[in-house]
Automatic annotation (TrEMBL):
The keyword Transmembrane helix applies. The keyword Transmembrane helix applies. This is Amino acid transporter transmembrane domain-containing protein. The lineage of its organism: Eukaryota, Viridiplantae, Streptophyta, Embryophyta, Tracheophyta. One of its GO terms (biological process) is amino acid transport. It holds the Pfam family Aa_trans. The chain crosses the membrane at residues 97-118, 124-147, 182-207, 213-234, 241-262, 282-300, 321-343, 363-383, 404-425, 431-448, 469-490. It is found in: Membrane.
C-alpha cells in the first residue's frame, strides 16, 4: 500500500493561518476532512473526497506540490465553475516597488498628459477641472488599493485581473473581465498610436507646411515603430532601462510644454475660460470629461503590473501606488493647469500644437512624445502579449527563431489592427472618453468595489458594505452616461470630419 502526504490549509477568511498534514492511502476510496476555522467557530465545514477517483480538497498539496484543483481558481460560491488558471510564460516577482512605481508613473505621465488641458479642463472649466482632477486622484488611489489588497486573496497570487475575478465569481466573470480588459487595453493602445502619429505630424509641419505626410501616414509610421519595439522587448520586466529612457523623454516634453505655455500665457492677452458650446453639448462634454478624469489615472491592468513586484507583494504594491499618486501626479498637474491657463477654452487636444517657440525646442518635445508613446504602449499591450505567449507556449530565449518569428507575426498583426483603427478614427479625446466609460469605470471602480465587498464580506461592517454598494451603483450610472456621451461625440466628430481624417 502506498501513502501520500496530503497538506490541507486552514483559513481565516482569506488569510492562510496553518496547514495540517495527513497520511492518506492512494488505495483509499474515501477521505474525510473536518476544517475548523480558528477565528470563526460558526464557519466550520466538513469535506468528503474520493481520492481513488482523483478528487482533492481545494488548496491541497500532495508531497508539497499543489494539486490540479488547488492550482485552479476558486470559482466563487459555485464549485462547478472552477476556472483553470494557466502558468504564465512571462517573468514575475522580480521587480522592486520603485521600478513598479516608475511603470505606473510612466503610464500616468505618458504623452496623454499633453491632451488633458483640452479634453478635461476646457469642458469642465477651472473649478470643475481642478476639483475633478484632485477628486479623481483620491478615488483612483482608493480603488486601486482595493484591487492591490486582493492580490493574494485565498492564499494564492492572482497575476491577472481576470484570474482574480474568476477566483471570486467563477468562469463567467473570468470571461467578462477579460473581454472588458481587452477592450480597455485595445483602446488605450489605439490612443497611444494616435498620440504618436500626432506628435510625428506636429514635428513634420514645423519644417514643411504641405499635405505630403498627413496624419494617417504618420499613424502608420508610428504603428510600424511600435511593432519593431514589441518584437525586441519580450515582456514587461524586460523594459528596465527603457523605463529610465521613458522618464527622460517625459521630462523633455513636459518641461518644454510647461515652459512654452507659461511664456505664451504671460505674453498673451486675457483668455476666455468659458465652457464652449450650447447647453446640450455642455452636458455631453462634461460627462465625457468625467470619463477622461478616471482614464487619466487608471490602467485597468493593476494585477498584471503587481505580478512583477517582489514579495511582500501587497506592501510593495501599496508603496508603488503611493508613489504614483503623490510624486507621479505632479508633472501631470503642472502641464494640465498651465496649459489651460495659457490658452483658455481654445486649448488644443494636443498641447504642443498650441505652443509657440523655437522650432528645435518644439521638435525635441514632439519627438520625445512620439518615442515615449512607443514605450508606454508596450506596458498596456503586455497583458495581451502575455496571454498570447502563454496560450501558444512561447518560452525560452527571446532570440530563439521560433519565439522571434512568433512575435513578428502575432504581435505585428495585433498592432497592425490597432494602427488601422487609429487611422480610421483619429479622434483622441473621444477615444479617451469611450475608454473611460466602457472599461475604466467598470474595471477600476465597479468591479474593484464589488470584488472587495464579496471577498471581505465577513469582515466588513454594515456601514462599510453600504459604502461599497453606493460606489458600485454610482459608478455604474456614470459608466452608462459616459458611454452615451462618448458615442455621441464620436458620431458628431465623424460627421464633422471624415474617416481617415487629417486633423
Amino acid at each position: 500500500m502506498v501513502y501520500i502526504k496530503l497538506s490541507l490549509p486552514q483559513y481565516s477568511d482569506e488569510i492562510l493561518t496553518s496547514t495540517t498534514p495527513f497520511l492518506c492511502s492512494t488505495d483509499s476510496l474515501e477521505f474525510h476532512h473536518f476544517n475548523h476555522n480558528t477565528n470563526n467557530c460558526n464557519n466550520s465545514n466538513f469535506g468528503y473526497y474520493n481520492i481513488a477517483a482523483g478528487e482533492m480538497p481545494p488548496y491541497a498539496t500532495v508531497d508539497g506540490v499543489p494539486t490540479p484543483k488547488s492550482a485552479a481558481g476558486g470559482g466563487g460560491d459555485d464549485p462547478n465553475t472552477v476556472v483553470d488558471i494557466p502558468e504564465t510564460a512571462h517573468q514575475i516577482s522580480s521587480d522592486s516597488w520603485f521600478q513598479v512605481g516608475f511603470v505606473l508613473t510612466t503610464g500616468i505621465n505618458s504623452a496623454y498628459v499633453l491632451g488633458y488641458s483640452g479634453t478635461v479642463m476646457v469642458p469642465l472649466g477651472w473649478i470643475g477641472g481642478v476639483v475633478g482632477l484632485i477628486a479623481a486622484t483620491a478615488i483612483s488611489l482608493y480603488a486601486n488599493s482595493l484591487v492591490a489588497k486582493l492580490h493574494e486573496f485565498g492564499g494564492r497570487r492572482h497575476i491577472r485581473y481576470r484570474d482574480l475575478a474568476g477566483f471570486i465569481y467563477g468562469r463567467k466573470a473570468y470571461s467578462l473581465t477579460w473581454a472588458l480588459q481587452y477592450v480597455n487595453l485595445f483602446m488605450i493602445n489605439t490612443g497611444y498610436i494616435i498620440l504618436a502619429g500626432s506628435a510625428l505630424k506636429a514635428a513634420y509641419v514645423l519644417y514643411r507646411d504641405d499635405d505630403v505626410l498627413n496624419l494617417p501616414y504618420c499613424i502608420a509610421i508610428a504603428g510600424l515603430v511600435c511593432v519593431m519595439f514589441a518584437i525586441g522587448i519580450p515582456h514587461l520586466s524586460a523594459l528596465r532601462i527603457w523605463l529610465g529612457v521613458s522618464t527622460l523623454l517625459s521630462i523633455f516634453y513636459i518641461v518644454i510644454a510647461v515652459a512654452l505655455s507659461a511664456r505664451d500665457g504671460v505674453q498673451a492677452p486675457p483668455r476666455d475660460y468659458n465652457i464652449p458650446g450650447d447647453n446640450t453639448s455642455k452636458i455631453f462634454t462634461t460627462i465625457g470629461a468625467a470619463a477622461n478624469l478616471v482614464f487619466a489615472y487608471n490602467t485597468g491592468m493593476l494585477p498584471e503590473i503587481q505580478a512583477t513586484v517582489r514579495k511582500p507583494v501587497v506592501e510593495n504594491m501599496m508603496k508603488a501606488l503611493y508613489f504614483q499618486f503623490t510624486v507621479g501626479v505632479v508633472p501631470m498637474y503642472a502641464v494640465t493647469f498651465i496649459g489651460y491657463w495659457a490658452y483658455g477654452s481654445s486649448t488644443s487636444t494636443y498641447l504642443l500644437s498650441s505652443v509657440t517657440g523655437p522650432v528645435w525646442v518644439k521638435t525635441l518635445a514632439n519627438v520625445s512624445a512620439f518615442l515615449h508613446s512607443v514605450i508606454a504602449l508596450h506596458i498596456f499591450a503586455s497583458p495581451m502579449y502575455e496571454y498570447l505567449d502563454t496560450r501558444f507556449g512561447i518560452k525560452g530565449s527571446a532570440l530563439a527563431p521560433r519565439n522571434l518569428g512568433f512575435r513578428v507575426v502575432v504581435r505585428g498583426g495585433y498592432l497592425a489592427f490597432n494602427t488601422f483603427v487609429a487611422a480610421l478614427l483619429p479622434f483622441l479625446g473621444d477615444f479617451m472618453s469611450l475608454t473611460g466609460a466602457i472599461s475604466t469605470f467598470p474595471l477600476t471602480f465597479i468591479l474593484a468595489n464589488h470584488m472587495y465587498l464579496r471577498a471581505k464580506r465577513n469582515k466588513l461592517s454594515s456601514g462599510q458594505k453600504l459604502w461599497h454598494w453606493l460606489n458600485v451603483c454610482f459608478f455604474g450610472l456614470m459608466s452608462v452616461a459616459a458611454a452615451i456621451a462618448a458615442l455621441r461625440l464620436i458620431s458628431v466628430d465623424s460627421k464633422t470630419y471624415h474617416l481617415f481624417a487629417d486633423l
